[in-house]
């Protein structure tokens, strides 16, 4: 821990409090890390537009890994530096498969415009799908199945009720369509009892986003630390050499990494305090 040069943290449920604000202690810890020239990274499933809803331009992060690693943004310089979208051929396969299967899904524009998206209502009502739509309808466009978009896309989001067997089946089914893509599981940040099935290019992960920053800054993997709270943080925590899960993580995954206090109890500040001595 003495030689840490980069600290990466998830935002929702980790760095941010439940009301999406930043605690005074976490903000102070960010400033102190900067004084010690330790690179500060936010690694989140949020797209860049949604990142700006919780971080302002002066929040002292150095980089933001957004959309689970589909993009990397130099926060200090406000400059986009990396992106990885799903290729056109795979997009067409996925669109046709989801339409044929009649599932509820959202399909997002290429990075960095991936706050915009298409939506498709399947043959079963889904309250969580409608909630997500209501939150994001300003940037939503109904998918015209007679004229599918012929472009790269950042990701797909399929929403299902919490069902481990169904998730495992759908994951295997989706990943078998084309070798280019992978499925990431996330717990719904909106409503308990739902699983978000996120489909990305296979190289997209929070861990890969951190790796891109390490290459850019010359930092070695053994000099990194990561903090998260959910399934979709595993790629981050498996990459960073020193990794921690917050107390508010799902019980079934807490044994995967050392635990720290919850996001409501300044998890970030507590986890980095030894670096600031």
TrEMBL record:
A GO term from the CC aspect: cytosol
GO molecular function, one term: magnesium ion binding
Pfam families referenced in this protein's UniProt entry, alphabetically: Hydrolase_3
InterPro entries linked to this entry: HAD-like_sf, HAD-SF_hydro_IIB, HAD_sf
SUPFAM superfamilies associated with the record: HAD-like
Keywords: Hydrolase
PANTHER family listed in its UniProt record: HAD SUPERFAMILY HYDROLASE-LIKE, TYPE 3, PHOSPHOSERINE PHOSPHATASE
Protein name listed in UniProt: HAD family hydrolase
């Amino acid at each position: 821990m003495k030689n840490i040069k980069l600290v990466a943290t998830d935002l929702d449920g980790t760095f941010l409090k439940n009301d999406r604000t930043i605690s005074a202690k976490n903000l102070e810890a960010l400033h102190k890390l900067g004084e010690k020239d330790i690179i500060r990274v936010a690694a989140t499933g949020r797209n860049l537009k949604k990142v700006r809803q919780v971080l302002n331009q002066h929040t002292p992060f150095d980089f933001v890994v957004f959309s689970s690693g589909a993009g990397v943004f130099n926060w200090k310089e406000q400059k986009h530096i990396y992106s990885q979208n799903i290729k056109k051929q795979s997009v067409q396969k996925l669109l046709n498969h989801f339409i044929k299967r009649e599932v509820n899904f959202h399909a997002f524009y290429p990075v960095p415009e991936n706050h915009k998206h298409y939506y498709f209502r399947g043959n079963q009502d889904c309250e969580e799908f409608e909630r997500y739509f209501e939150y994001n309808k300003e940037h939503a466009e109904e998918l015209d199945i007679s004229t599918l978009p012929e472009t790269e896309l950042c990701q797909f989001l399929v929403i299902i009720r919490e069902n481990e067997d169904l998730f495992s089946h759908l994951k295997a089914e989706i990943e078998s369509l084309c070798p280019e893509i992978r499925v990431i599981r996330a717990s719904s940040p909106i409503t308990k009892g739902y699983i978000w099935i996120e489909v990305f290019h296979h190289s997209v992960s929070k861990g890969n986003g951190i790796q891109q920053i390490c290459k850019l800054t010359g930092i070695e993997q053994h000099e990194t630390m990561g903090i998260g709270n959910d399934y979709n943080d595993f790629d981050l925590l498996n990459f960073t050499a020193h990794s921690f899960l917050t107390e508010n993580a799902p019980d079934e995954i807490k044994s995967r990494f050392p635990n720290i206090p919850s996001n409501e109890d300044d998890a970030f500040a507590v986890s980095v305090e030894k670096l600031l001595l």
